[in-house]
Amino acid sequence: ADIKEVVDSFEIEADHTIKGFELKGEQHWEQVRIDQTRQENTFRQYWDTPANKSIVRQQIKPESKSSDTRFNVAKWFLKEKVYASSGYRFFVLKNQEWESVLGYNEFGTPAALSHGSLNNRAENSYDSHTWVQNVTSTPFRWLSLGAKLKEEYLNRRGESTYNIKTGNPSVSTTIDRFDVSTTKFNAQRFGEAINARITAIPRTALYSELELEQSRGPLNENRVSVGGTAPTSVSENVDRETLTYIQKNVETVGIHVMPISFVDLTGHYRHYWKNNDYDDLQESPPSSATVEKSAFFDGQTIRVNEFLGRLALKLSRFFQPAFRYIHRETGYETATESEASVRTGIDSNNYIVDVTSQLLTPLFATTSFSHLDATTWTPAKEALSANTPIFESGVNTWSFSLSYSPRKTLSFINTLSYSRASNFNDFSDRGLPLGADYRMVNVESGFKFGLLKDQVSLEPKYQLYRYNANNNVDAGDYTAHVALLECKMGWG
Tens digit of pLDDT for each residue in 264-308? Predict the structure, then answer.
């Protein structure tokens, strides 16, 4: 595959204080252009027939433009015992994509392809209005209370035309069938949150937070085949409207303790619950084999229980180790039309060790090692004919970071991480080679320096991403080189 990507971004940020009111505004624009070509060669043996020697070439050109506008105002009240803030965000995203999938023979001459397509086009748009309000108060020195409200309205539109071409494009460009699809989604989303922090016990802080979110909106989906040389009866025909209700709750309770000056203990329990409910308002009836019945999902419930514990020791500036343990249980319960609910799940344990060293006053080094093991299970583990055992996986990651700031206006940052997964399990008798098995390297190097009395800062970076997969599992090797230059300017 050959991928070329160009990203242009520009950001303006301003803040000012008037009579105690902190005002802040941000504007961000971004444009992304990608040209991707993927080629698949099907050559079996050199003595094979020409019919079995083919090349499939796919070319995709997506483009997108986005605009992100934010305003925020905040102020302290009642002798700095109450802090209130309010923010508004307007976000717009528009993108389009062009695609062609063509076939060639072994010599590169255009040839017929059973699933070819020519000049496919798609356009999408998304916009949202979001308001957020936040109030924090400290009625007593040992008690802090907070409350948040969020309202959001979003609109999403999509249109696409898929042009199916089964003949030889060098002979005729006539399209066999046009599949035209349109989607619309309008939603309202509301969120509430309350939190409390208690520090009445010496060297101890207890905290708790409850987050709620509700969203509702209709989803319209339509697809129909028009024109072309092939009859429309061989294509799908979808016309449906689904009303979605989504509820989400997150409860967290935690503790932070420093029994002695160089020992830091943190722990929390978090429960996450999300329920997606889908109601069919209109659906295309399955009156014939060529008309697709719609919206066969009735709902899905997701539950997550998370336990986190952290121990940090500040023994000296040269040696500050920390250990974290995260246990997470995730369960999915999916209900489909006229079928019993299906339960699947993932249980994981993550062990992380960090060591931070301040070798010199401006020089910091951080070394980290993490081990993640996970267990995935599905109802197929109990199937008689095609039993799929519980899959256990593990990933080890080593990382190193070095930062050096010889001057206030100059700093160097370098990071390196290496991940190794060795989980290939060949269930050849069932035809299911399961297991992530890869090596991955990420490198980032850059520096930041200030100009014009630190009113202007430049931050060039270089990033390298390398992924090597086990060929028995997949063929997804890639190497990516990224060059970035970030410029920030301030005034006032």
Answer: 999 999 999 999 998 877 777 655 444 445 456 788 999 999 999
- Residues 26, 488 contacting (CB under 8 angstroms): no
Give CA angle at 181 (297, 93), nearest 5°. 90
Residue with tokens 């230059």: 485
Q: How far is CA 70 from CA 17, 436, 451, 472, in A?
A: 17, 41, 27, 48
380 by DSSP, 3-state: which? helix
What SS3 state is found at 152? strand
Nearest to 244 by CA among 216, 268, 272: 216
**Contacts for 48 with CB less than 8 Å, ≥ 6 apart:** none
Closest residue by Cα to residue 56 from 71, 77, 37, 83: 37
> Would you state the pLDDT for residue 214?
96
How confident is the chain (492 residues) per 10-residue block, as mean pLDDT?
83 90 95 88 57 78 95 93 96 94 77 74 95 95 96 95 72 74 94 96 95 94 74 65 92 96 95 91 60 65 96 92 96 84 91 92 92 86 64 90 87 93 68 74 91 79 90 77 81 56
Query: Quick one: how many helices (H) and strands (E) in the chain?
Result: 0, 22
Amino acid at 104: Y
Residue 291's pLDDT is what? 44
The one-letter code for the residue type at 90 is F
Compute the chain's Rg from CA coordinates.
28
DSSP code, position 201: S
Note every long-range contact of 326-331, with CB atoms under 8 Å and residues 24 or more positions apart, other chains counting: 326/350, 326/352, 328/304, 329/304, 329/305, 330/302, 330/303, 330/304, 331/302, 331/303, 331/304
Q: What DSSP element (H or E) covers 56?
A: strand 54-77
Distance CA 453, CA 405 (A): 17
| Residue carrying the six token digits 């004919």 | 385
